[in-house]
Design goal:
Blueprint (H helix, E strand, L loop, with lengths): L1 E6 L2 H15 L8 E5 L5 H8 L9 E6 L20 H8 L5 E8 L8 H9 L1 E4 L5 H14 L3 E2 L1 H11 L3 H15 L3 E2 L1 H7 L4 H14 L2 H13 L4 H23 L4 H7 L4 H11 L6 H17 L5 H11 L3
Parallel strand pairs: 1-4, 1-5, 2-3, 3-4, 6-7
Length: 323
């Protein structure tokens, strides 16, 4: 059996796949289970594994994550040197009935014109896993906490969903943390604000957008919210630098004529984030981004060398910021 799972969130695809694997293989060991990260593994190596069934083993399970060669993209997937799709294609046309192959694809859609995908359509199963809607996240949170003997206020559920921002892996981790804190009581909005940190990457993305718009008040509001959750300035500087570097990458790909969907795929992010960045880039002078990255470097250096306090250094950067 061959099963492909594709989703914009790799954690969701893995979660669903592991549920199916646990059902089919409640006991897994080094003989009946193999796992590959295809970002660093040749496709030929995966194909070779599919041909091998250890002696004394009735069935085997193979999990291959990050199968980018099956994703739908504008540009053709580039295989490693001495690698290619042919061996895996032949296997998918006639798979071993005693080997279960699970393929995870981090993408909104797969390439239905890909010969491997076409073969799997005939011999296996392809499962698209869409991102849940906010109300579905909230319903799941209520169900999860109720099963653990806890309650969850509607406002608390809404804030929880907002703070995890579609990150399934973090969502589950935060629910487990809330169960331990609640100890059988109802989780309130106050508890969510105290225990669930805002997503730093998303908040610094919002901060970079506010800076680009010249909205200093919004920037300081985000900064104060992050400080409540003890986010240190060094981490904030590095994450903010990553956001401006991301803007520079988007600018470069946009200048080459790549559409926003392809930029999103190339940079492993959402099309919405790319579109927001492209709108903000209209306000940015061509030489501004390298200068801002230099200023963030000097800000970090001033903190690490003890010249000024972290809070003063970062607030000074915000005060002197210009785009």
């Amino acid at each position: 059996m061959i099963t492909v799972y594709y989703s914009p969130d790799p954690n969701m695809a893995r979660h669903i796949a592991m549920k199916d694997i646990r059902k089919a293989f409640p006991v897994r060991d080094e003989f009946n289970y193999a796992s590959f990260n295809m970002a660093v593994t040749m496709v030929n190596e995966l194909a070779d594994e599919c041909e091998f069934l250890p002696l004394g083993t009735e069935r085997k399970c193979i999990l291959a994550s990050d199968c980018a060669f099956l994703a739908k993209t504008k540009t053709k997937y580039k295989y490693q040197k001495d690698d290619g799709p042919d061996k895996l294609l032949e296997y998918c046309k006639n798979p071993n009935a005693f080997i279960d192959l699970f393929l995870l694809v981090h993408a909104e859609s797969i390439d239905e014109k890909n010969p491997i995908v076409k073969a799997i359509m005939n011999t296996g199963t392809i499962k698209g896993i869409p991102m849940p809607k906010p109300e579905e996240w909230m319903a799941y949170a209520n169900k999860y906490l109720n099963a653990k003997g806890c309650g969850l206020d509607n406002d608390a559920a809404r804030e929880l969903v907002s703070r995890v921002d579609g990150d399934y892996g973090r969502f589950i981790n935060e629910l487990d943390k809330l169960v331990c804190y609640a100890n059988g009581e109802t989780v309130t909005l106050k508890a969510i604000k105290m225990l669930v940190a805002p997503k730093v990457e998303e908040d610094t993305f919002a901060m970079s957008n506010a800076l680009t718009r010249g909205d200093v008040a919004k920037t300081m509001e985000i900064y104060k919210d992050l400080k409540i959750h003890s986010v240190d300035e060094i981490r904030l500087i590095n994450t903010l630098a990553s956001q401006f570097f991301f803007m520079d990458q988007v600018r470069y790909l946009d200048a080459k004529g790549a559409p926003s969907s392809e930029i999103a795929r190339e940079l492993y992010t959402s099309p919405k984030r790319v579109e927001v960045t492209l709108r903000n880039l209209y306000r940015v002078k061509p030489d501004s981004l390298p200068r801002i990255l230099d200023e963030l470097y000097e800000c970090e250096k001033a903190i690490l060398t003890g010249q000024v306090s972290p809070e003063f250094a970062f607030q000074r950067f915000l005060a002197n910021y210009s785009i």
